[in-house]
# Entry
Amino acid sequence: MWLTQGNDGGSIAKRDDLVRTKAAANEKVDKDEVRHSLWSQCRLTKKPLSAPIMADRLGQLYNKDGVIEYLLRRAQDEATDVENKAAGHIKGLKDVRQVKLAQSAAGEDDDHAYPFSCPLTQRALTGKFKTVCLWPCGCVVSESGLRSTTGLQGKKDEQETPCPVCETPFSPQALAEGRTTLDSDLVWLNPPEDEQSELRALLSQRKNKRKKNESSEKRAKPRL
# Structure
């Protein structure tokens, strides 16, 4: 047991209490590190994100050269199981979108800072608030900044509206539904695990459907 000073002049902390406290602290550090890596590292190579940066429909971020290297190695059956689990749905560069991420001033000289920020609010992209990529143009902004700047309230009857950064038109329908699909103009970056799992399942269903259709077309094609 350890004797620690308290407001009542002295309190005794049991070893089990200290172990639990340390474990909780370590768990928080681990979660913070994971969250930081999602917003600062390529999902495949774990190298710092640097332009050109790509995003997929699951909201994961990559360096373009990391995606290309992965595709080449997978074609030669050299990709790891971890890589395939993360990016096995990417069949080519058509499955990713080059994104425009505003550099954060704090991230330029500090490896522990978050390197990117919302160009509308100037807040660092830390994962503590929702961040979206406008798929038609690739601009990345915070959801709150997008709503406040454009006046969007997420109504289903809202028409296409210009991106507040580059003025490229996009459909705000996903804001009304509160979620993205494989064809939405908005993709939430690094979404919660359950939402990403749902999108993975949709990608798998689309892949299976495409294979089934291709197989049916081959069987229906007359032999010469």
User: Anything to note?
Assistant: Confidence is low (pLDDT under 50) at residues 1-6, 22-26.
